[in-house]
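Dissemination and training. As part of the outreach component of the grant, students in the summer workshop were shown how a complex can be specified as a set of sequence lines and then modelled as a single object. The example used during the hands-on session is reproduced here so that future cohorts can follow it. Participants entered these lines:
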Amino acid sequence: MRSVRILGVRVDDVTMGEALRHAQEMATRGGAHQIVTVNPEFVMRAQSDATFRQVLDEAELSIPDGQGLLWAARVVGSPLRERVAGSDMAPALAALSAQHGYRLYLLGAAPGVAEQAADVLRERYPGVQIVGTYAGSPSPAEEDEIVARIVAARPDLLFVAYGAPAQDLWIHRNQPKMQVPVAMGIGGTLDFVAGVRKRAPVWMRRVGLEWLYRLLQEPSRWRRMLALPRFAVRVAECKFTGGRNAS
Ligand code: UDP
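and obtained this result:
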């Protein structure tokens, strides 16, 4: 698999089809793997957070979740073929669960949301094997209890919706104890699936403006989203200094 480095962070050049096949392989092979959904906010966070950077680096699969990454990869002369959004990949994995019987566990989001999302997925993908839902929290005090729940449910696929970087650090910390074949941080996906939050219309996603929709829906994200212009500036700087850091 070909990868690109954007400001030092590895991103795999996969299409949705390839990412799903890879995840299926992991689910069949067993073991304990992690999928990360990298976007510019992840990349900027990784610049100052060595642990997060290492978690991203060690992931079995790092999908190009943000449109900004496709732009950056082009700028550094190493294009990525397509955007693979975690919010699209997670439901597609639920469809695979229905086809192949993979056991799926939904962790995170506000109380009740994972259950609502499970109902929607059961209706959308009859036969989907949802073996557990739990809100919990990423607080270390709850970790042992949550891990015990997951181990008891024996999932093949685990979605963790605690937001980045908490969800990705949580998975990395706990995978040795859980041994879930495929664990993936999914941000706000359970909110989208449950319908408690709206995702950008398809046309906005196609033209790369999902971030703008998000900002309009949740203006309180503005501070976090300053990572986007900072990311653009850093990538452009790297281009003009010969791409030493960018690729
Ligand atoms: N969340 C949670 N517990 C927390 C923090 C966040 O369950 O302590 C959930 C929140 O309800 C939402 C998701 O994590 O469903 C974060 O979504 P967001 O879109 O903010 O993800 P990000 O963009 O940070 O990856």
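Residues 86-100 form the longest helix (15 residues). Students were then asked to discuss how this feature might be tested experimentally.
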